[in-house]
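Worked example 2:
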Amino acid sequence: MSGETITISGPDGSFSGYLSKPASGKGPGIVVIQEIFGVNQVMRDITDGLAAQGYVALCPDLFWRIEPGIDITDKTDAEWKRAFELFGAFDMEKGLVDIQKTIDTLRPLTTGKIGAVGYCLGGQVAYLTACHTNVDASVGFYGVNLQSRLADAKNIKAPLMLHIAGKDEFTPPEAQAQIIAGLKDNPHVTIHTYPEDDHAFARIGGIHYNKASADSANGRTLEFFKKNLG
């Protein structure tokens, strides 16, 4: 299954998104939110995989304001350096505007409900998508810096699932404890922890990839979307 590139029109300009549809051509929607490597093969494969599960999936280019069309890997030092530069330059609030426009663009192509799933940087965006957009359900994988945005959780009105890596090099134990404590009483939030896993344990081909944990997290995610998106 392969997708197509479409144009998403936002208030500050147009940007691209990778769209993949199920064989039936219709279904609920899912916004796939990129890591710090742009809309690369890993993200396109995730988008195609969700389409194979019956979802209309769309992965927007969230780095377009910095440099459109970023498509790099996690395989070289130079690419990691560029990825962290992009992460540092990313404007989260404008990114959330782009996510809302992506949801608005995707919804007419679906049966109505929209979910979001994000990884790494996208994990934080997915969390904030639950806080600040009209998404129907969100999932964040090993989101970074969530502990600095816990006040936003009061705005969550739809189900949110978080997958936390216990040995995440970018989210130390004290930050994880803050996140869990800050969200434990929120009825919309479900948190799963993977105690022995490091950041990006679900990135196929990544140095910390753990198939068992990835399969568990991905299975929980699909069940969550099936329940909340129909």
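The beta strands are 4-10, 13-20, 29-33, 56-60, 114-119, 137-141, 160-165, 189-194. The two ends are 22 Å apart (CA to CA).
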